[in-house]
């Protein structure tokens, strides 16, 4: 944590800011993360067994996206100190001094209120309340309490990223059923191996920032075991989704192939030693991380395509 305090004392621009351009305020919303929120929320809404007016559907996904962006801005406000000492995040608008912490907080709070209010008006108030809880979970439960206090931060906090398809489903139906719960489980159990794979070749970043990632608190050998176990736990939920009314042969085929590849990748990571990983610059770990990105996107794309061509 001394690195954090040293950076803060030498960089008053974190607090001052005020030089931001439009792109910096867009970056506050974490557009890459928002794209995943938008896509999974859209699929949750699209595959729901209730027809939704296209204008209402577009507005619903838009306001869910705004809520996701608001969460990102609140996260950048609170995490400016640790972002400043991590190579992966130090160029973000707040630690770089282009946007002040106060501005990030203001943007996050304003967009949170706007997104929840407009989703309630556009879709229904159950979905709006669910979106409000999602923002609160990510900005407060994960960012404030979990991230800096427990190596299970990404496990429990992963729920925040798993809520959007449930919110999308709620926009269409006004409720929740087994299908969105399995979509939630798919993202929830995918999140730890995805981020732990990243942590394997970014360990020093988390160590410098004082974030108790599993690689820092338990070491890389234990992290490798956890990644493999989670690939085994994840697979049944991914396949089970294909046996629900939103599933079908197309989705099941995609899920079976992807989960065989994911388990194989987890097994390859488990068998590697740190010396082997360093020798080839973590090639296997980086490959697994890239696979994890395709894994989730292709599952939800298959769900949408299955709904288009017909389910069971």
TrEMBL record:
Swiss-Prot/TrEMBL catalytic activity: heme b + (2E,6E)-farnesyl diphosphate + H2O = Fe(II)-heme o + diphosphate
Source species, domain of life: Bacteria
InterPro entries per the UniProt record, alphabetical: Protohaem_IX_farnesylTrfase, UbiA_prenyltransferase, UbiA_prenylTrfase_CS, UbiA_sf
Top EC group: transferase
Main location: membrane
Bilayer-spanning residue ranges: 33-49, 55-78, 99-119, 125-146, 153-176, 182-201, 227-244, 250-270, 291-309
Pathway annotation: Porphyrin-containing compound metabolism; heme O biosynthesis; heme O from protoheme: step 1/1
Membrane topology label: Multi-pass membrane protein
Enzyme Commission identifier(s): 2.5.1.141
Gene Ontology molecular function terms on file: protoheme IX farnesyltransferase activity
Cellular localisation: Cell membrane
UniProtKB keywords: Cell membrane, Heme biosynthesis, Membrane, Transferase, Transmembrane, Transmembrane helix
Described purpose of this protein according to its UniProt entry: Converts heme B (protoheme IX) to heme O by substitution of the vinyl group on carbon 2 of heme B porphyrin ring with a hydroxyethyl farnesyl side group.
HAMAP family xrefs: CyoE_CtaB
Family: Belongs to the UbiA prenyltransferase family. Protoheme IX farnesyltransferase subfamily.
UniProt subunit comment: Interacts with CtaA.
Note: Carbon 2 of the heme B porphyrin ring is defined according to the Fischer nomenclature.
Name of the protein in question: Protoheme IX farnesyltransferase
